[in-house]
Design a protein that fits this description.
By secondary structure, this protein is α+β, with helices and mostly antiparallel strands. Helices cover 32% and strands 18% of the residues. The chain has five helices and four strands; from the N terminus they run αααααββββ. A hairpin with a 2-residue loop joins strand 2 and strand 3. It starts with a helix and ends with a strand. GO terms for molecular function: nucleic acid binding. InterPro entries: RNaseH_sf.
Amino acid sequence: MIASFVDENWDQFLHEFAFALRTAVNETTNKTPAELFLGRKIITPFSKLINVTEDTKYVGRNIKRLFDETRRNMREKHKSWEKYYNRRRRYVHIKMNDLVLIQTHFLSAAGRKQVGKLIPKFEGPYRVLEVKGNNLSIWKSGKRVTVNIDQV
């Protein structure tokens, strides 16, 4: 990524890129890595230009509050992501001896003259031998195989 910005002299700019990463606000925590590590906001070149000093006060005594706030932000983001992740999730109740189809994960292979789009997306049916949480044991090719319920 660095090389795409500065061609051949990329190694001369490592400190600037490291500074940019350390001062970028994380989407989940709403804090910068530098702020979490040092316990305070750091002075950036931009804040020196506009003479901002109120945000740079030392919060060492309030480090517990800083981490609590970060944990709260993370929990809120996880709930938000969970809502969007589970939006299209299907809840399927599979029992022993049910027949299921399993997703295939074949890729295109020019050497074998296979085109991924033309390969069937599911294979089976296979008999369910056991259900343990999100995993199923099925009988496939003469042996017991464990697959995740998301692949059914």
